[in-house]
Amino acid sequence: MTLRNLTVLVALAALPASANEHDFDFAAGSFRSQVRRLQKPLTGSTTWFEAKGEVRTRKVLNGLAEVEQVELDQPTGHLQAFNLRLWNPETRQWSIHFANARVGTINGPPSVGEFKDGRGEFYDQEEWDGRMILVRHVFSEIKPDSYRFEQAFSADGGKRWEANWIADCRRVDSLPAVPEAQDRNRDFDFNLGKWHARVSRFTGGKWADFDGTAEVTSLWGGRANIAELRAGPLEGLSVRLYNPQAHTWSLYWVSAKGMTLEVAPVGSLAGGRGEFVDVEPIAGRMTFVRESFVPPSKFEAAYSFDGGRTWEPRMRITFEPLPREG
Description:
Layout: H1 3-13, E1 29-38, E2 48-60, E3 65-74, E4 77-88, E5 93-100, E6 111-116, E7 119-128, E8 131-143, E9 146-154, E10 162-172, E11 193-203, E12 206-219, E13 224-231, E14 234-243, E15 248-255, E16 266-270, E17 273-282, E18 285-294, E19 298-304, E20 312-321
Antiparallel strand pairs: 1-2, 1-10, 2-3, 3-4, 4-5, 5-6, 6-7, 7-8, 8-9, 9-10, 11-12, 11-20, 12-13, 13-14, 14-15, 15-16, 16-17, 17-18, 18-19, 19-20
């Protein structure tokens, strides 16, 4: 363990286990934000620029997670960002995962921490300009209709912190819909909406069937989407992000039981079929995992224990449209 890793663990251990799944309730809803950003962090720069943004946050997975969508107009261009906040009942801590639409993947470690006396502190370790630094995210000045967010970097193991992003967020009744992105990928448009989900899952040496629902909604004007699934013991959230540079999708999954972000299969849709593959440990063995879509209604997950030569189906889902409300 490196000294910086130890510093992060000590900082987290110093926070008491008083946090709970309602810590981020204050952030649910619609906000306008006034943002100040330091132009060149950790260079001695004192030049800041200002930007205005919109923040839309909603609860998912029965309140154990939040999805935050950020739209920010800044001098360097329009930023579309996404934060996924996950509450872990076992550790009694939150993990915050970040992505932006230009990259379309969740890279780097999550920021992890909790709240004390109305202030939330979250830490991680990242590479910045060729060196490893500590990153701190703070939520403070929390009121029913406003809060402050601050990001700070430390290059000396947490002795000194330099703020580089300060956002003052104020609640509003509503925000206009995010305009549809005209240059977006439309591969998953077939899956948007509310569905009756018929699930067959291979577990305990046999197949079991469950009925449930799925709701798929778009993010970033259609550049990404999230799918919330509930079917018997299977409950979770799928976050689908499109990488415009690699022309691939990453399909992240969070189970409501574990509340951790799993390895994302990566792939694309072509010729009427989508295939997404990753390698992950299953029952102590490194296993190929393949997720397949056949639009508009079929999904299958399969494992390969021989390097992709043969595949064993483990789950199948058939999506049937639910009647439109009203």
